[in-house]
Automatic annotation (TrEMBL):
High-level lineage: Bacteria, Bacillati, Actinomycetota, Actinomycetes, Micrococcales
Reactions catalysed according to its record: L-tryptophan + O2 = N-formyl-L-kynurenine
Quaternary organization: Homotetramer.
Homology family: Belongs to the tryptophan 2,3-dioxygenase family.
Pfam family name, one: Trp_dioxygenase
EC number: 1.13.11.11
Gene3D superfamilies: 1.20.58.480
Cross-referenced InterPro entries: Trp/Indoleamine_2_3_dOase-like, Trp_2_3_dOase
Protein name in UniProt: Tryptophan 2,3-dioxygenase
Top-level taxon in the UniProt lineage: Bacteria
Binding site for substrate: 51-55, 113, 117, 254
Gene Ontology MF terms in the entry: L-tryptophan 2,3-dioxygenase activity
């Protein structure tokens, strides 16, 4: 059989009979995955598919983000800092993808969005349980957020567990204590169900680590990884805010908040305050 010009001939070994074998689509449950984009606008607005896919892909990456951060937190309990660093390296790449992805949604103009926004009713990203789980495990705990999930007990239960468990940073401080660093009891015995708040007693501990980085290389590296992670989180929040601003201006959110003003306030939150405070104390 003659091979057509500018085509790649299939090799003899290429498998084509999947009647009895697992294939790509069945492994990945593609039939289900690709049937889950269900626009609600009537008549269906061209851009609603973009809106749905932007959110669904974000949720998939957040699923992995949570999986990796949870694992990093649990590995700290067994003092396996090497694997923790590997987990955080991956977390940072996922965050970069999530932040880059905003440029796709930024092609949605305010006019186009206004044409289907009403169909979204009161649904909002504020109700994303995976996003809230990531915030909680990073230490931004807030029990009041649980009420949003009253009608979704399974998600509410996961959030309640994360609220009650130590955060990634709580476990990092406990790890440092086990490694011989002088972590004050006020940090080790804090109420982990509350949002983490700045503890000035920790700054000298980090100052010691940063000034003798060569003696504590892994710990020093871990501190810098956490700083990167927080920076990346803020970059995502900032891109979200700017996308919201260019799409709905100063309108209230569908979730009931003031919108841009509400999101702006999240930019002053911090997960690892002492790791930023220590910078003021370093050098001259
Ligand atoms: C045109 C696109 C978007 C607009 C206009 C928008 C708007 C808003 C607004 C106004 C809020 C505040 C809560 C409210 O009252 O609704 C919010 C929260 C939120 N949105 Fe979006 N959003 C957009 C896209 C996205 C995307 C793609 C994601 C990705 C998952 C997302 C995730 C979130 C999350 C997680 C929150 C809660 C933030 C927090 O608690 O600080 N949003 N959004
Ligand atoms: N809060 C947005 C609506 C919105 O963006 C949204 C709606 C449903 C599901 C996810 C959303 N994304 C982020 O908030 C708004 O006020 O227009």
């Amino acid at each position: 059989m003659a091979v057509e010009e500018n085509t790649r001939p299939l090799e003899a070994g290429i498998v084509t009979d999947f009647s009895q074998r697992m294939n790509y689509g069945s492994y990945l449950a593609l039939d289900e995955l690709l049937s889950l984009q269900r626009p609600v606008s009537e008549p269906v607005h061209h851009d609603e598919l973009l809106f749905i896919i932007q959110h669904q892909t974000s949720e998939l990456w957040m699923k992995l983000l949570l999986h990796e951060i949870r694992s990093a937190r649990d590995l700290l309990k067994s003092d396996d800092i090497g694997t923790v660093l590997k987990r955080i390296a991956r977390v940072k790449h996922i965050q970069e993808v999530l932040t880059q992805q905003w440029s796709v949604l930024a092609t949605l103009t305010p006019t186009e969005y206004a044409e289907f926004r009403d169909f979204l009713a009161n649904s909002s990203g504020f109700q994303s349980h995976q996003y809230r789980a990531v915030e909680f495990i990073l230490g931004n705990k807030n029990e009041k957020m649980l009420s949003v999930f009253d009608s979704d007990p399974a998600s509410q239960q996961i959030l309640r567990e994360l609220l009650e468990e130590p955060s990634l940073y709580d476990e990092f401080l406990r790890y440092l204590s086990r490694q011989g660093f002088d972590i004050p009891a006020s940090a080790l015995e804090r109420d982990v169900t509350k949002a983490y708040v700045f503890n000035p007693e920790l700054v000298p501990v980090f100052k010691g680590i940063y000034e003798a980085s060569g003696d504590n290389w892994r710990v020093y590296e871990a501190c810098e990884e956490l700083v990167d992670l927080e920076d990346n989180f803020q970059f995502w929040r900032f891109r979200h805010l700017r996308t919201v601003q260019r799409t709905i201006g100063m309108k209230r959110g569908t979730g009931g908040s003031t919108g841009v003003d509400f999101l702006q306030r999240a930019l002053s939150l911090t997960f690892f305050p002492e790791l930023f405070a220590v910078r003021t104390e370093i050098g001259a």
